[in-house]
Amino acid sequence: MKTIASIFSGIALSLALMPVHASAVANCKTEPKPAVCKKATKAKSNKTASVVSRVPRRTSAVPSFGQLYGLHGVDDPLDLSSSVALVLDQDTNEVLLSKNPQAVLPIASITKLMTGLLVVEAGQPLDEPITITQDDKDTEKGTGSRLAFGTTLTREQMLHLALMSSENRAAHALARNYPGGLDAFVVAMNRKAQELGMADTHYVEPTGLSSRNQSSAEDLARLVKVADGEPMLREFTTSKEATVKVGRRQLAFHSTNGLVRAGKWDIGLQKTGFINEAGKCLVMQAKLAGRKLIMVFLDTAGSRQADPERVRRWLDSNPQALQSSSKLQ
Fold it and tell me: Does residue 245 have an active-site annotation?
C-alpha cells in the first residue's frame, strides 16, 4: 500500500491523472469489490509559464481522498471548488458540465438517498413505531445524535429526519428494522445499485459514516433520477424543518442544505453529505433555465452552495451551454 507521501509525489511528477479508486487508500481489511477504477479527466495545461500548478483551495489535517488523488487540480471552465462535478438534463441525459465524473470516491450521507429509496420500496407500515437502541450508536466516527437511546418515532418520522437532517441513528434504525435486518438491508442496497446500472457503487452500511461507501458522479446521477420519482423522497429531502416529540420535549430539526433553507431555488430532490474522507457532497435535482437538471458535487472545498450558484450564473449568462450533444449512457 502506498504512503500518502508517495501518492503526492506521484501526482507532482505526472502530467495526467492515473486511474483512481478510493479503495486504493482504504484500510487493507476493506472487503473486495469489482474493479471499477476509472480515469479522471486529464488536467489541462497551464496557460502561463509562471503558474506551475493550481493552488489548493484548502489544507486539512485529514485530507479527503479527492485531495490525495489531486482531483482538485483538474481544471474546469467554472473554476469549481469540487473535485468531482456533473450537471445533466434529467429528461434527455445531455451532459452540460462534467469534471472527473467517473472518479470513485466516498459519498458520505449521500448514502441515505439509497437508504430512503429502499425504505419506501419495501412498503413497510409508515406508522409503525421504531425505537433507537444502542445498536444504532455510531461506532465508525463516534458522532452523537439528538435522538437519545430509547427514543421512539414512527418509520415515517425516522425517514423524514434521515433525509432532511441527515440523522444517522434514524437511518441506521430504519435499516435495522428492514425485513431480514441490517445485513439484509446492505445486501439490498448493493443489489439495487446494480439494478440501476451503478457499477461503480458499493455500500457497507446505511448512513454514510463509512468511507467504504463509494460511488461516482455518473452513478449518483442515476440514483437521483430514480429517487426523484418517489414523492415521499422529494417531499422529505426538500423540507426546511420538522418538529417531533422526543419524550416530553418537542425537538425541531432543520434541513442540512442551505439552498433549501434559503428558498431561492426550485429544488425537487436533494441530499447533502460530509465526512473527512469525502469532503462536502451534494446531489440534487433542480429546475434551471426551464430544464430539470441533475447536479452532483463531490469533495467540495468551502461552501457547499458555491458551486451550484456558479453553475446557475453560468447557465444564465451562457444559454448556449444548454445545447450539448454529450449524453450519459
Answer: no
